[in-house]
Structures are given as structure tokens and as C-alpha cells.
């Protein structure tokens, strides 16, 4: 497995910044934030070949339309090229978005913003309310549902 | 290097191998189990780390081609819309299963007689019932007696898993429709049991239970089997089962943890490698006497592969539900389980509630369905989804068809150079009709429960959790691979005990039936020790 090249990193950073941009309203960083992007690069290694192919395709679309690589496009131009990319390379675009989400939504700042404690589930666990078991009363009164055979 | 023959060689330490090992241990025979994976360390499971949800898409992925651990073997699944889910290690697939633990229905053993489809099993529900009970006691299950969808049974149940907000919401939906639902029988203990601590709602059951509350075979059967003297050898991958001039199995050739070839001799060989691994091993065990693979005079080894095609239907609600907390399972419905020809298909399905999901899977699911956009709108859309999704899956009965099969890939090999399996599988029209019906009914339930948006997927692409039918049991050697007590028709000291021997799939998760069958076969062996090979 080879590391991503600097050009690939620039392209990917520009793309993930589009997928999940920063938000002042929710006080959360972009997916291109340094810490999050480091995680993205690490997790993307599992799909290194597909990412490489997809990023090359994205840059090729940018070159064909504007004669520059994706990272050098204006925001409007990126939107347009990304739309074409998602249409023509849907599976790869979905993979990149999926990896972006799996890294973004485990950052402490993001977890706190969505109301999650930034901790692993174990060993504290969580509380789940028991619920109202009287809801089962209508079902308790039903006749047998299972099909009788000659032995049961 | 060869060693003294052992009495029983079990290949595979998953659900069935563990149950067999424990049951046979009382005979004091020399029993050795070879397992290609390792012994699990619960304190290294994802739920002990911050990246618990992401690791389910990495080293704890359900798909071996994505997981790519040294213990995994590749599977060519290009010709299947459903991809395989498995795990290779002590405990096998139970390491990653959700613990949903229903039994088959009595009708499931008689589908040919009742509905004119598939084949009848050579055994019935009553034959297995005592073994279901024994298995429940060994595993520890939560649930509630009195389900009208089942005959009265002999299960010892701990209190059911909590309904939670999601379960209660969906129960209201079922009640509005007047349809059946019931707390799931689940292999997750709600009270301390057999030295194990009760569930604390980690919510990551599908990536190994760090608490040990989920009844994976490594924490249920194996500790007892090991204490009783069974020898478990991990990181040992079997290449082939060997045979003698008399046509009897003589043992196996395997690669140890160092990759060195080893041979073990055995008087009895038991294969417990699941519905993909078992036919792979039999088909790879060719010899002069068995040129088409071992135990394959019927030509049925690898054929009749059955999954449970899953239809997933998820609803988005206005308020927060259980989200990532709590076991994935809570309740199930079998309103549409038994055949009703007016529905347009034969047999039926279980609706199995999926309580909720973590933020990563929530966002990924909603992005896939176009509910969360790229760009500035992402954040609010995500917040409108996280902790607000619950729903269900339709677990559809898959009928046996010979063209759905496991073969040996001509090129693909595992890290030891052993030829890898290829699966070829298509969805039948019956299945498609059943999934459509399940989606429609589940959507009605979710709407009745107040869902504001509904998303569906069928079949679930990475939903090949249940691997069945590829070495089925039966009394006729021309129509089955093993007899009615698990012994090969062709090789009289070779037994198969995993989901391969299922004749039909039923419409429920198979693990409790796999383990009950293993206990039943073990009892048959113990009762016939004097004339086991006659």
C-alpha cells in the first residue's frame, strides 16, 4: 500500500471540504480539518486503489472543463464538477463520502455537537428505558399463529 | 509430521463446532478442534475504543473481502447480489452476530408436504425441541414465554431486552395495525448468568461484545468444553480432509500458525465450517476415490446455497429514540411467517426490529438514500436523522435452488494457497415478491408508528449473514449429502453439522437451530458409539 501523493491529498481535501463543510451555526469544523483529514487519509488506505482512481477521474473532469485540477477550481466550479463526478462515478463518490462520514463523526468536537459523549461504549454502557410492557396485552390474547403439523 | 490418531477431529470452532465439542467431551474421547482464526480478546473489541463504529467497516467488517484479516479467506462473490458475512475465529460468526435467537417453526421442517416447495427435512420440530432447550440453557437467552407464533416450549428465559423508546414506538405501530409482535428470543443475557455479566447496552453487538453478555460460542460453549478436556488449536487452517483406501476419512492436512504443513489423523472427522467453508473444504478434498470432492456422490455438495435475503425498511421520526444505545434487537413480528398463497408467494418472513444506529451509520445510510446532502445543508439534515431512525428488516425464507451454489474459483486462493470459494446466486421471483410484501407491510407499520420519512433497501447488499443448504441432510443418498443424523452417506466416519446441512432456510435467524442440530448429531453419535460406522 502506498501513501497518498501530495496532489492526491490536495484533491481529496478539497472534495471532503465540499462534502462536509465547516458550520458556524453548529460550531463544527470541516471534514478537511487537519485532525479529521489525517483520520480520513488513514481509513482511506483500506480503499487505496479506488481512491486513487476516483481522485484521478475527478481531476480529469476538472481539466476537461477548466484546464486545472479540482483543488484549483473556484467554489462554483467545484460544485459543478462534483455533480458530474457523482453522476459518472457514483460508487466511488459514495465510497469517499462514506469514509468521510466515518471519520468526521468520531471527532470529539463533532460528537459533542451532536450530543454524544466522546467516549467508547465500554465499560460504562448506556441506559435504555424498559418501556411499557402493557403494549403487549393485545398480542397476548391472540390465538395461535403458527401452522400446525401432524407432530406439533 | 503425523501424530497419534485422535478420536474426533472437529474442523471449525464456531457455533456448531463449539456445541459438538462440548457435548462429546463427556465421552472422554481425545477431541481436537482446528480453527483457522484465533481466540478472541473481548477487551480489544471495538466498543472499548473511540473508533468503535468505524472499525465495523474495517477490521470488524462483516465481509471477509473487506475485513481482510490473516484468518480470513477470500470469496469470489461477483456473481451474487448478496455478499457474504462471516467471521473466522473461535466463536465463528457468533462473534459478529446480533444474537437474535428464534427457533424454527414446526412447519419449517415440512415445506414440501405443506406447500409443495423445497424438500421436507428428515427430522421434525419435536426431534429438535430438547436440543433447542439444552442449547438455550448453555447460551443464556432473554425473552418471554407465551408467544402465540410458537408452540409452548421448554426454554429457560431471562427477562426480555428492554423495549426502549424505539421498541415501544414500533410496538404501537404493530398494535395499530392489529399485527403480531413479541419480545425477541435473544442470546443476550439480561441478568448475570453462567459466570458472565449482564448486558449494559453497549449497542455494538455486531462487532463483538466486550461485556461478554452476548452469547457468542467462545464465551458459552468453549470455556466448558476446554475445561472438560477438548483440545483447541487456533490459527490452524485445514487444506483438505484425507481418506484411506477403504474410503474412510483418516484426518486432515492443515497449515499451522507458522504456515507449516501438518497432518492430523482421526477416527472421526466433523466438519463445522459454515455453508461456504464446508463445501469449499469438501470440494477441495479430491482423491482417486472421490474425484468430484468428498461426500459428493449426489453431486449436491455446494448446491442449494441459501441466504436469507433481507429487506431493510427504516423510518425517520421527529423525536430522539434509542440511537446507538442498546442491543440491536428488541422485538419481532411473525404476522407474515406462515404461507398464505393470496400474498403471491410461498412461505414467509420475520420482521425483525433494528433498534437504532450510531451517528456514522445513520449519516452513511441517509446519504445513500439521498436524505443528507453534500455541502452546507449536511449538518442540519444529519441532526434531523441522528438518534431518530428505527425500523426493521424482513428476514425472508430462501427456497433451495440448485443453481445457487458454491464452487471452487479457478484462480483465487487464500494466504496458504488453498483454492478459494466462488458463489453464484440469484434472487428468485418468490423471494422478490416476498421482499416487496415485507417492504410494504413494514412501511405501513412505520407510518402507523409516526415515521415522517421511510427508506428501504432490498436485498441488503452486505446481508449474507446466514449460509445454508450446501450439504443438506436427508434419507435419500441421491438427494442429500448427509443422513438424518449428520453422517455423510458416502464416508461413514465423516459428519457435517453446520448450516450446510439445512434442507430449507425457514424465515428466522439460524444459529439456535444450527447449535440444536449439532447437539442432536452429537447425541446420535454418542448413542451409536459401538456401531457408529455401520
The backbone outline of chain B, from C-alpha atoms, is globular
Overall pLDDT level of chain B: 97
The strand count of chain B comes to 18
Mean pLDDT of chain A: 95
Query: Any idea what the radius of gyration of chain B is?
Result: 22 Å
Number of domains of chain A: 1
* Series of H and E elements of chain B: EHEHHEHHEEHEHEEEEHEEEHHEEEHEEH
Q: How many runs of DSSP E, i.e. beta strands of chain A?
A: 0
Characterize the biggest β-sheet of chain A.
none
Number of helices of chain B: 12
In percent, how helical is the residue content of chain B?
A: 10-25%
Weakly predicted, low-confidence segments of chain B: none
Helix-strand category of chain B: alpha/beta
In angstroms, what separates the terminal alpha carbons of chain B? Answer: 31 Å
Q: N- to C-terminal separation of chain A?
A: 58 Å
**Helix coverage percent of chain A:** 40-55%
What labels would you give this structure?
heterodimer; A: 152 residues; mainly alpha; elongated; B: seven-stranded mixed sheet; six-stranded antiparallel sheet; 12 helices; globular
Polypeptide structure, described:
The complex is a heterodimer of chains A (152) and B (534). Chain A is 55% helix and 0% strand. By secondary structure, chain A is mainly α. Chain A has one domain (6-121). In chain A, helix 2 crosses helix 5, helix 3 (48-66) packs across helix 4 (75-88) and helix 4 crosses helix 5. The termini of chain A are far apart. Chain B has 534 residues and is α/β, with parallel strands linked by helices. In chain B, 23% of the residues lie in helices and 18% in strands. In chain B, the strands form 4 sheets. In chain B, strands 1, 2, 7, 8, 9, 10 and 18 form a 7-stranded mixed beta sheet that branches. A 6-stranded antiparallel beta sheet of chain B has the order 6-12-13-14-11-17, with helices on one face. In chain B, helix 1 (15-25) packs parallel to helix 7 (221-227), helix 1 packs parallel to helix 12 and helix 5 crosses helix 12. Chains A and B meet through helix 4, helix 5 and helix 7 of A and helix 2, helix 6, strand 6, helix 9 and helix 10 of B.
